[in-house]
Write a structure and sequence with these properties.
Blueprint lengths: L5 H9 L6 H13 L4 H14 L3 H12 L15 E5 L7 H11 L4 E5 L9 H5 L11 H11 L1 E5 L6 H12 L6 H14 L4 E8 L8 H17 L3 E8 L7 E2 L1 H15 L2 H18 L5 H13 L2 H12 L5 H4 L9 E6 L5 H4 L18 E5 L1 H13 L13 E4 L12 E7 L2 H14 E4 L9 E5 L1
Parallel strand pairs: 1-4, 2-3, 4-5
Antiparallel strand pairs: 5-12, 6-9, 7-10, 8-11, 9-10
Helix pairs in contact: 1-3, 2-4, 2-8, 4-9, 4-10, 5-11, 5-12, 5-14, 9-10, 12-13, 17-18
Bound molecules: uracil (URA).
Uracil (URA) binds next to helix 9.
């Protein structure tokens, strides 16, 4: 009988050879039960970062992680559940907008979400901004809510894909997150274990996302669609632009409040565009609508008629939250300091480049200036510094802090006009965040075309 060793498997991957199903299951099982140590798993993950994995390998790696724990049984839900997942962004409150809209159309929403980590936010933290909201319903309550009011939400349980939890934590500290097969298998192991019959993926690209360009985003999307379809799930994806934060609010409470404004019909165009696009795919995968255009119309009507807002209030109340916050966003917890950041007349992005002669270029002769870029990752980092994001899982965060953009890419900007507001509870942290926010706005004297948020839909 042949005995595998982790040493041989690391070596095999390093040489670019394809691992078998048994070998991949051996690695995932061994690392999860502790028989394979961190240093060997780290070496293996780094080899994958450099040489990649075939589609077959990625599929078996996903399945091994999925099978490492429990699977959520959604058979008690009446109707087909369609899940939605975003590969991460800054200011991304789309789930909070889309959930009530889709539920108001009569399509069941039974969703598990994570907490924020690093510069990206998490839906569960945003939901906790509604005072009293319980993010840990029992499985029975979770299913009952979906059947009675059409929507329920829960934090990711530890029993779902525990192998991914352990591997992701290791990747986080060994610079092995940004690998397409590792991201695809990590996300899909959890999505498949969450039990939905259909999955809509929001694959983000740009400065605030894991994928920096559209080619990589399309490759990631196609790989994930392939894994889901092999498992008999209905799948579709949208590739969306995350070069600047989504909407104006970044930070938990102000994002939750912005989501409420979206449902009242006052949402920023970019958030609504992404929410309508992904929501339409959910309605089509569920079978509620045949055509995306019909689905979009149905979703738009939930906003104009107020049914999506009502659904959100019903949902927040059902999970123990204060539903008055849905009707009056002034009730969200406020930070003590509100600092307005004004444009000084220089190009802040150039100032970071030390001796760059362009740093002194003050656009004195320009007749019109435009915001040319806003680095999403930097804004996310500023919010983290304010205490609104966590460096390690389970860290406590301050839900009231954040950054509100007052200008977006393509907007005209004048000297002394406000660029952003920082919400903070600590002067020192506010100063640090101010430095980042000031430097993150690129300014140009050339007109900047506003880009469509949706690069491509794949279905
Ligand atoms: N989110 C995940 O859950 N896993 C990854 O690898 C990247 C983002």
């Amino acid at each position: 009988m042949y005995f595998m060793t982790m040493y041989e498997l690391i070596d095999k991957k390093k040489e670019g050879k394809e691992l078998t199903k048994n070998e991949l299951y051996y690695i995932v099982k061994g690392y999860t039960d502790g028989s394979i140590p961190d240093y060997q798993m780290s070496a293996f993950l780094m080899a994958v970062c450099f040489v990649g994995m075939t589609r077959e390998e990625t599929y078996y790696f996903t399945m091994a992680m999925k099978e490492s724990g429990d699977e959520l049984d959604l058979s008690g839900v009446k109707g087909m559940v369609v899940d939605k997942h975003s590969t991460g962004g800054v200011g991304d409150k789309v789930s909070l907008v889309m959930g009530p809209m889709v539920a108001a159309c009569g399509v069941p929403v039974a969703k598990m979400s994570g907490r924020g980590l690093g510069h990206t936010g998490g839906t569960i933290d945003k939901l906790e901004s509604f005072s009293g909201f319980n993010v840990s319903p029992t499985e029975k309550e979770f299913i009952r809510n979906v059947n009675e009011i059409g929507i329920s939400w829960a934090g990711q349980t530890v029993s779902l894909a525990p192998a991914d939890k352990k591997i992701y934590a290791l990747r986080d500290v060994t610079a092995t997150v940004d690998s397409i097969p590792l991201i695809a298998s990590s996300i899909m192991s959890k999505k498949l274990a969450s039990g939905a019959g259909g999955i809509v993926l929001d694959i983000t690209y740009g400065s605030g996302a894991f994928m920096k360009n559209t080619d990589d985003a399309v490759e990631l999307a196609e790989l994930m669609l392939d894994i889901g379809r092999k498992e008999g799930r209905k799948m579709s994806a949208a590739i969306t632009d995350m070069n600047e934060p989504l909407g104006y609010a970044v930070g938990n409470s102000i994002e939750a409040a912005e989501a409420v404004e979206c449902l009242k019909g006052n949402g920023p165009e970019d958030v609504m565009e992404v929410a309508y696009t992904l929501g339409s795919h959910m309605l089509v995968l569920n079978g509620k609508c045949r055509e995306l255009s019909q689905a979009r119309q149905m979703l738009e009507e939930t906003i104009s008629s107020g049914t999506a807002l009502k659904k959100m209030a019903q949902w927040i109340e059902r999970q123990g939250g204060n539903k008055a916050m849905v009707y009056d966003t002034i009730l969200f917890k406020k930070a003590e300091i509100e600092r307005v950041i004004k444009y000084t007349g220089e190009n802040p992005a150039f100032l970071t480049k030390g001796n760059n002669p362009e740093a002194s270029y003050t656009f004195e002769k320009a007749s019109q200036l435009y915001v040319s870029s806003i680095n999403g990752k930097a804004i996310g980092n500023a919010v983290q510094i304010l205490g609104g994001g966590r460096a390690a899982k389970d860290e406590k965060i301050d839900l009231s802090v954040g950054v509100r953009l007052l200008k977006k890419t393509g907007d005209i900007i004048k000297k002394q006009e406000a660029l952003a507001i920082i919400y903070a509870n600590n002067e020192e942290k506010c100063n640090l965040a101010e430095e980042i926010v000031r430097e993150t706005f690129g300014i140009s004297d050339k007109k900047i075309q506003k880009r469509n948020k949706i690069f491509r839909e794949i279905f």
